[in-house]
Amino acid sequence: MISKERLEELIKQGATIYDIFKGDIYLVDLTMAKYYDVPKYIEYKNDYYNCNLTRSIDDLFETKEEAEEYLEFGNITRTERLDLPTWEEFNKKGCFYFVGKNYSFYQIYKRYNKIHLEWSDDETYYMTIQEWKLTKENYLEARRLCKKLFLGEE
After folding, report:
1. What is the pLDDT tens value at each position of the chain, 154 positions in all?
2. Is residue 97 within 8 Å of 105, Cβ to Cβ?
3. Which CATH code for domain 4-74?
4. Helix, strand, or coil (residue 24)
5. What is the domain partition of the chain in residue ranges?
């Protein structure tokens, strides 16, 4: 990434830098670029899209190698799934675990004719969040709460 001071120098020199936009690297000619201090961004003409782009300076790199390295290692996204068991699967297995968005561990299990939902910030100690009478309707409610916890909504 380029610092504000270095970017201002490069604009004065009319240099070229590199921008990562929509997963591709573009050469940016700074001769006509404009820098804005709040928030820190520049506006430049992108020849590929034939339009002016307004970009955060966090997406700009002085060398192509820096841009390529950032594209490969600097912005890695992981998509996670949570497949909650059906009522029938839950009755057979009796329990399941998942990790919430905040990386806390959760377990849901049946015991003594109840559904228990527990939380832990490590893998050894669990604290009960909620419990329901063991019914299909209540299991549906428990799954809704699990979905919210997984997505970080609660």
Report:
1. 788 888 888 888 888 899 888 888 988 888 778 777 766 778 887 777 777 778 888 888 999 999 999 988 987 887 888 999 999 999 999 999 888 877 788 999 999 999 999 988 766 677 888 999 999 999 999 999 999 988 888 6
2. yes
3. 2.30.30
4. strand
5. 4-74, 87-151
